[in-house]
Structures are given as structure tokens and as C-alpha cells.
Amino acid sequence: MSEYNKINKYKIFIIAGELSGDNLGEGLLINLKQLLDDKIEIYGVGGPKMISQGLTPIFNIKSLSVMGIIEVLIKIPRILKLLNFTKQKIIEINPDIVITIDAPGFNLRLQNSIKDFNIKQVHYVAPSVWAWKSYRAKKIAKYLDNLLVLFPFEKELFIKEGLNTTFVGHPIAFDTNFIKNRFFLEKSLDNKNIIKIGMLPGSRFGEIKKLLPVFIESANLLKANYTNIKFYVVTLKEYKDVITNAFDKTKLDYYVTDNDKERYNIYSKVDFVLCASGSVTMEVAKAGTAMLVVYKLNFLTWFIVKAMVKVKTATIINIILKENIIPEFFQKDVNALNLFRNIKKYIDNVNLRDKQIAKLNIAINSLKNNKNPSLIASETVLSCLRDQ
């Protein structure tokens, strides 16, 4: 360890834009603290997991949780205010490094705004240049010192633009909790006499508002066809009452939890999962459970996205496999009859389920590097810090 580290503490400024980023940030901070013998001060924005690792937050992570182009446009004044506030905090704290995690709309603008500050800059989770805005790869190469990517195919896209890029691997590939854990198990999950369907309508209120009524309507159609069927929902604490109240108005057999750790047993023990597009699809894939993915935005946002996107799938597993093994429905096709018919096919056809699961396993295994992703990420950050 250098003389600098023997005397002083490194100042780390780190921002996670969403709760999925909070998970990555937690792993990064745990390993970074170990590598630096806790000689570290942590500032920025994160959720409960990063805060538990010593992060001093400058504002609530929920302020950055905005989905969709139009939703962002509506909130531009607030976002610009947060950007300026964050930039001023960076000036005030004068950190040794700024690490941003995901949320490229906010975080990459922030990184660009501090490019002349003589501070090391690292971004964790590549922007989806393979899907749209491919020019961003060249642009961010001008101000980032290193990019940490989760998927192997992303590395070459950025290296060819001259950006130091590290494939860390995806943490989900190393997660053993889906196979064996001691977390709470809802008893009915072990009942082989019932059909068990996971329903994951999203992690934002806007998503839930759009998708939950359709999910429940499709559940009613399923119940009309299968007498012994139960539905399982994993959600956040702030949405549990909304979801429970909606299910209470039905005659469905259901179970709703906001205990995050219960998801390991639910995802791995249900027969099929209906879920909103997002990082949760990676967890369901790791759990080895077949799924159907839906994606629903407001009309204008969808119109813009459809015009700009270069790929024909919203699910990263499909992109990794170069095959649409996970069925998807978008926009107006997200209706109860379509969802019911598709789920029914997978309930009735074990071979169809097994085929998808086999491909999910191939995709997940491709996401492993030679070490734990959080350790590789922290070693890369440490290398940047010492290269000052």
C-alpha cells in the first residue's frame, strides 16, 4: 500500500441510479473497503445496501428513478437541478474518483460535466449502444477512464473506440441463493399439486399501474382453466398495499411479499413467471424458470423508442443468445388474452418449458469471468486510483 494510503483516506464519490445499481454498488464497496483496509470515505447517491456500507447520501436514490423518454422530459427541470447540485457536491467534496452505476441518462451527463476536474472517472454498466445511440460509445470514450461491463459482447464495442473497458461479468451468474438458502419459504411453494405462477409487474409505480390490471385479468383467465393455481408477487414495500388491494378484489389464490429475500425461493419454485421487462429477467433466468416478458410505455415514448432502437427484443437474455427464446409482448399486445394463451402453452407443454430453461442456463453461464464481478470491479477502481 502506498504512502498516500498509510496516512490518508481515499474519497470515493459513487452514484447508483436505481435499486439494481444499489446491489452492484454494495458489492463494489464491500470489496473496495477490503482492498483499502477501510481507508475510504464514501459519498454520493445509493440505496439501503450502499448506505449500509458507509455511503453518505447527498439525496434519495428514488429521485433518479424515472422510466421512459416522455417521463424524463416532463421532469427535466428537476433532473437538471439534481445534476447541478451533484456537480457542486463533487466540487465541494473533491473526491479521488467518481463512480457512476447504470442510469446513463443522468450519470453520463454528470461524468461529461466533470471531465475537466482532474478526477478519475469510472462508469459501471455499459449504456445500451448495441440497441440505440451507438454514437455514445465514441463520446464517452473522451471522458471516462474506465468502463465496467456486465456482458462479454459489450467489451469490443467500447475498446474499438479507445476506451479502457473491463468485462467484470454479471453478479447473477455467481449467485447461489437460487439453489440453496435458508430464507423464508412460503409453504405452498412446495405443494406439487398446484400450478404456481410468478407475477412481477415492475419496480416503478408507473409500470405497476399499467401492467397490474392486465396481469390480474390474465390470472382470472388462467383460474378459469386451472382449478388449482396460485399466483406469487414479489414487490417493494411501498407498492405492497396497492398490489394486495388489487388482488383482494378477485377470487384468486395469491401471495404477495415485500421481503426481498423471499424472491430466491419464489423465482426458483414457481412453474412460470410473467414479468415486466428489466433486470428481474436475469434473476428469473438464474433461478432456472421459464418466463414471458412484457413491456409497456406511454404511446409517445414507445413511438420514439421504436424509431430509434436497433434490436427487436427488449430482453438481454435474448440478445446474449441471439435468439428470442423468451417470448415478449409490447404495448397494445400486452393484453390479458395474449398473456393467458402464452402462459397456458408453457403450463401445458413441459418440453417447451425445458427448452427455454436449457437456453437460459447457457446464457447465464456465459456471464462468468474468472473471479467474482464485484472483486474485478473493485480491483479496476483501485488501479484507477493508484494511477493518479
What keywords describe this structure?
17 helices, Rossmann fold, 2 domains, six-stranded parallel sheet, alpha/beta, 16% strand, elongated, disordered N terminus
Description:
- The chain is α/β, with parallel strands linked by helices and 388 residues long.
- The chain folds into two domains: 3-169 and 369-386, 3-Layer(aba) Sandwich (Rossmann fold), CATH 3.40.50.2000; 187-365, Glycogen Phosphorylase B (Rossmann fold), CATH 3.40.50.
- It has 17 helices and 13 strands.
- It has helices spanning 3-7, 19-35, 48-52, 69-74, 76-93, 104-113, 135-140, 152-159, 205-225, 237-248, 263-269, 280-287, 299-308, 316-321, 336-348, 350-365, 373-386; strands at 10-16, 40-45, 55-57, 97-101, 120-124, 146-149, 165-167, 195-200, 229-234, 254-257, 272-276, 291-295, 328-330.
- Helix 11 (263-269) crosses helix 12 and helix 15 packs across helix 16.
- The radius of gyration is 22 Å and the shape is elongated.
